[in-house]
Write a structure and sequence with these properties.
18% strand, two-stranded parallel sheet, single chain, alpha/beta
């Protein structure tokens, strides 16, 4: 297939495009500002908030839409998330593209408590989550014959900026382990699987692409297979790199939102990730090596 991938200048898009470029498929990667380096597929620089920029791309069989604005003004999020998705959907309809994968986020659900699945209500999402949800609606309502929305949890990989972990207790604690600093875990007994290594996303996309039909699936939530406690997660990462950190237990009444993700629907569709243990070990090795380069 000839596959158009947006967002190859970003971390997840670059990883997915590089992986699929090693298959038999022809990859065309779109970036806007940051040009990816050392790629072996065709690159196109374009601002796809302008629909005219897509007209140069012909004979596409499948779109994987990863490009997204994570922050910024409301106007920016509407343009870079909703408007861009609308343009891609119209482009796919106009040129009779058969398949469309939209990479979304668990953030569309907002402040949901308890276990999260694809049928949960949406409760007061922030602006980013709302623009991603409305983009999902555009994809669902499109006339593209086969479309799939993949809602991602926290993505782990060698690209994670461990020096800028504000807003993420998970990454802040992992960063302390890397540097041998003591960690206080305030939610030691809370089960948590709201994370996925980017390599498992690439593996799943490869798997889903070979399915003959997508008509029985529309939206899939991804996350780690096992539900480990936060204390178990920290201990796995500490042991893997031999960190001298001491993990101390604290207590808090504030629980992380969307800590448990039900991946049953994704599993039925062919999502078979490696163990949570292996993902955590791979991630902490990657970022530990980066920190010591």
């Amino acid at each position: 297939m000839r596959i158009l991938i947006t967002g190859v200048g970003g971390n997840v898009g670059r990883y997915i495009a590089n992986g699929l470029a090693h298959s038999e498929h022809e990859i065309i990667g779109i970036y806007r500002n940051k040009i990816p380096k050392n790629v072996n597929y065709k690159l196109v620089r374009a601002d796809i908030s302008d629909s005219e920029s897509l007209l140069q791309l012909q004979n596409i069989d499948m779109v994987i839409h990863i490009a997204s604005a994570l922050s910024g003004s409301t106007k920016k999020l509407i343009r870079d998330n909703i408007k861009v998705t609308e343009n891609l959907v119209c482009y796919a309809e106009r040129f009779n593209i058969k398949r469309f994968i939209y990479i979304s986020t668990v953030s569309v659900y907002g402040n949901v408590e308890g276990e999260l699945d694809e049928n949960c209500d949406i409760i007061n999402p922030e602006c980013y989550g709302m623009t991603k949800y409305l983009s999902e609606c555009l994809v669902k309502e499109s006339y593209v014959p086969e479309k799939l929305i993949i809602q991602l949890p926290r993505m782990l990989g060698p690209f994670v900026d461990m020096e800028n972990t504000q807003g993420s207790g998970f990454l802040t604690m992992a960063n302390k382990i890397i540097h041998g600093e003591d960690v206080v875990c305030y939610i030691p007994d809370v089960k948590y699987n709201n994370y996925l290594h980017v390599s498992e996303l690439e593996k799943f996309i490869r798997q889903i692409m070979i399915k003959a039909e997508w008509h029985d699936i529309t939206t899939l939530l991804l996350g780690a297979k096992e539900r480990l406690t936060m204390l178990e997660i920290l201990q796995i990462m500490k042991a893997e790199i031999g960190s001298k950190s001491q993990i101390n237990v604290g207590r808090s009444n504030t629980l992380p939102k969307c800590s448990i993700i039900n991946v049953d629907a994704a599993t039925k569709a062919g999502f078979y990730p490696c163990s949570a243990d292996d993902m955590l070990k791979r991630f902490i090795r990657e970022v530990y090596q980066n920190a010591n380069c």
